[in-house]
Amino acid sequence: MLLIHCPYCEEERPELEFRGAGDAHILRPTNIADISDEEFEAFFFLRDNVKGLVYERWRHIHGCGRFFNAARDTVSDKFVTTYKAGLPRPDLSPAPKATETTVETYEATEGVAG
Amino acid sequence: MAEQALRKAPLGGFNGGSAAAHVSAAAPATRLSLRAAPDAVAALSKALGLDLPTRPKTSASAKGQHALWLGPDEWLLIDEQGADLAAVAAKSGVLHSAVDVSHRNTAILVAGPKAAQAIASASPHDLSASAFPVGACARTVLGKIEVVIYRAGEQEYRVECWRSFSPYAFGVLAEGAEDAAH
Ligand SMILES: [Zn+2]
Relative to the CA of A79, which of B61, B64, B105, B133 has its CA 20 to 30 Å away? Predict the structure, then answer.
């Protein structure tokens, strides 16, 4: 089971207490009534679904109840860091970038069972 | 025909577990789901007569009344004497949200040398002594339901769950307590 660090509880807690809530840092347009259907679709439905580092909203729903943000790697499922809602994306510039050549074997992502 | 509906405790008479961890239904208590911003905490604490905890997983207790930290602006208050907690909180005169959940919740007491193991049989929460000392509390999961666990003593835990889930919670804990004895 994954342990996820909740920035409000200030400790790692079991993943069963959490629920994912989609991409983070999606800004609602301030002129929502004026934008075209296509622009609304892009804001509301279209996500990048990248391979590698993503910024997501998570909720400690069976814990403190708070929403927070997480930087997570979609290849390894590793949580790189978590931070409070409302804070800007953390600078993770030297973060490894997933490429097409990333090998996705069980051993590479989970380690060899001991 | 009955003149009046009789009050029936959700786990009336339930008793189980093992010598390692005894599982029983807690006595009725009043409960309040309290939410308030940081600037209201001092006045609410004064009205309640106990300092609302502001650190994660901590609680405050005085004279059968307990305030459990659930989130940065959320507490579960429990009064074993049955005080009207919403009325007490209202005396604070500051903005807050108070919902009486006395009958939404019921509690199961797990006590004994292996009480923590009995709960841990169905909960992923870390109940080890260093992570969960006496007085610690947390909302978490137990099997398929959400619960609030409060460590009332060295070998005593109070598991708060929703009333309709209580037979399930009791079964899970009693089973865990029997396993913990082996
Ligand atoms: Zn939390």
Answer: B133
Domain count, chain A: 1
CB–CB contact A63 B57 (8 Å): no
Domains of chain B, CATH where assigned: 16-180 (3.30.1360.120)
Residue contact B56–A65, C-beta within 8 A: no
When CB atoms are compared, the residue of B126, B131, B138 closest to A63 is: B138
- Residue A25's domain comprises 3-110
Q: What is the pLDDT of residues B70-86, one digit of tens each?
A: 999 999 999 999 999 99
Q: Render chain B in DSSP notation, one character per residue.
A: --SSPPP--TTTT-EEE-SSSEEEEPPP-EEEEEE--GGGHHHHHHHHTS----STT-EEEETTEEEEEEETTEEEEEETT---HHHHHHTT-S--EEEE-TTTEEEEEEESTTHHHHHHTT--S--STTTS-TT-EEEEEETTEEEEEEEEETTEEEEEEEGGGHHHHHHHHHHHHHHHT-
Q: Is the ipTM of this complex over 0.85?
A: yes
Ligand 1 centroid distance, CA of A85 (Å)? 12
Chain A: residue nearest B74 by CA?
A64
- Structure pTM? 0.89
CATH number of the domain to which A58 belongs? 3.30.2270.10
